[in-house]
Amino acid sequence: MPRSRIIPALLLALAAVAGLDPSATRGAAASTKGFILTTDYTTGTLSVVDLDTRVVTPDVASVSPDPVERWYQGLLYVVNRFGYDNVQVIDPAQGYATLRQFSVGSGTNAQDIAFVSPAKAYVSRLASPDLLIVNPASGATLGVIPLAPWADGDGNPEAARMTMLGDLLFVALERLTNFLPADTGLVVVIDTRADTVYDADPVTPGKQVVRLAGENPSTSFALLPGASQDPDRHLLVGCTGRWGILDGGIDDVHVPEGVPAQPGVIRSTGFMITEDALGGDAMDVVAYGSTHSYAIVYDAGSNTSLVSWNPSTGAKLGTLYAPVGFSLSDAALNDRRELWVCNSSFDAPGLHVFRAGSDVRIAGPIATGLPPVQIVFDQNDDLAAAGDLPLPGRFSLAPAPNPASTFVRLALRLPGPGAARVEVFDLEGRRVRLLAAGDLPFSSVDLRWNLADESGRRVPAGLYLVRATAGQGTVTRRLVVIK
């Protein structure tokens, strides 16, 4: 196969080995940059903020006026939505050059992209009944997964936001007719190993999906950091329902421990907090902790505000920021425990930063040129790409040395003893080696890999992905192997 530029991240890693960019190979490095989408709904641009200095470099690349962005393995993927219908791949290491831009179907109104590997991803499309499978490294279409069986009366399920949790892809179906809720929201779970719909309830006859408590699941998914006594996982998604009516809330999608390795029922347990308790429609959800998390809400006075709430009690804790009008478009948590909020109003646009947990404002407003509508960070490649990180220290994987030439030690830290799986993949998404699978007796485990594949042969030099899956989710780290 052509080797001119298989994956930009591989070249970055090899450059790091040569001493050109040591930061590119830091498997567990903290985020350093925030990537900001800005728009006046006529023009769209990408700006960048240095997280140490909070200095913004505006307009480093052009995007559509209606974009969504995801960070994965060193690259930015901008989903250009209504009227554009493409995915734009931007490389920060090459001066924010657009490496490629590929269509996802004319008139399909792409909404989100989620990754299995650098060579396999899924694109949800609001105006198509099929989930698209693509190779983001080339833009080639790999197939589709039909979602029409779970559509509302218009025959289209309105697939929107997505997130990966281990081998499972969670796809929110808004089920709208003329942009109004027509039926209860659903979450279809995809087994990415076979590209089939995963049976969310093996006890009930037929292929089951997750039926939510409310309508119109319109926010990104957020993984709630788990308590040590609760090994299961909880994905949060905001069900907006009908705008201006307090008929929704933040739903809890309960994923039992061990799924999908062993059968279990994935289901909604209902609203963790209602829109009535929040004080408005749920527009965005940030999961910080089991007793303290965040949301952007839209109230009856047509104003947006950033609030904190308690997932354990379903109570609102307070209001952090409440500008006038429809101003707040996105909130995102980085691995420095900073909560960044986008004020996209025309009167007072800019970024505001809060210390997560204490809710103290630590910076802002920070000008971004055009009004900011979304921010993501150069950090964890899994659920962080959907906007939220588990609390540091609960679940981690650290390879050393990195780069490695003879062996690598993998320090795995779990919240407690239990089932875990550690695997190594190449850049084509093929598993190279299974390092651990099953119950681990301790919460702190050191694994050693001799750089051999399943057959005992030494793997070639290059970039590999080491993935650990446990009850708290999935962590992926990059590892460079040199001769």
Describe what this molecule looks like in 3D.
- This protein is mainly β and about 475 residues long.
- The chain folds into 2 domains: about 350 residues, 7 Propeller (Methylamine Dehydrogenase, Chain H); about 90 residues, Immunoglobulin-like.
- It is built from 2 helices and 38 strands.
- The strands form 10 sheets. Strands 12, 13, 16, 17 and 18 form a 5-stranded antiparallel beta sheet that branches. Strands 3-2-1-31 form a 4-stranded antiparallel beta sheet, with no helix packed on it. A 4-stranded antiparallel beta sheet has the order 4-5-6-7, with no helix packed on it.
- Strand 6 and strand 7 form a beta hairpin.
- The longest helix has 10 residues.
- The N terminus is likely disordered.
SSE diagram, text form:
Layout: H1 8-17, E1 33-39, E2 44-50, E3 56-63, E4 67-72, E5 75-80, E6 86-91, E7 97-103, E8 110-117, E9 120-125, E10 130-135, E11 140-146, E12 159-165, E13 168-173, E14 176-177, E15 180-181, E16 184-191, E17 196-197, E18 210-215, E19 222-224, E20 233-239, E21 249-255, E22 267-274, H2 275-278, E23 281-286, E24 293-298, E25 304-310, E26 315-321, E27 328-333, E28 338-343, E29 350-355, E30 360-366, E31 372-377, E32 396-400, E33 408-413, E34 418-425, E35 431-440, E36 444-449, E37 462-470, E38 473-481
Antiparallel strand pairs: 1-2, 1-31, 2-3, 4-5, 5-6, 6-7, 8-9, 9-10, 10-11, 12-13, 13-16, 14-15, 16-17, 16-18, 19-20, 20-21, 21-22, 23-24, 24-25, 25-26, 27-28, 28-29, 29-30, 32-33, 33-36, 34-35, 34-37, 37-38
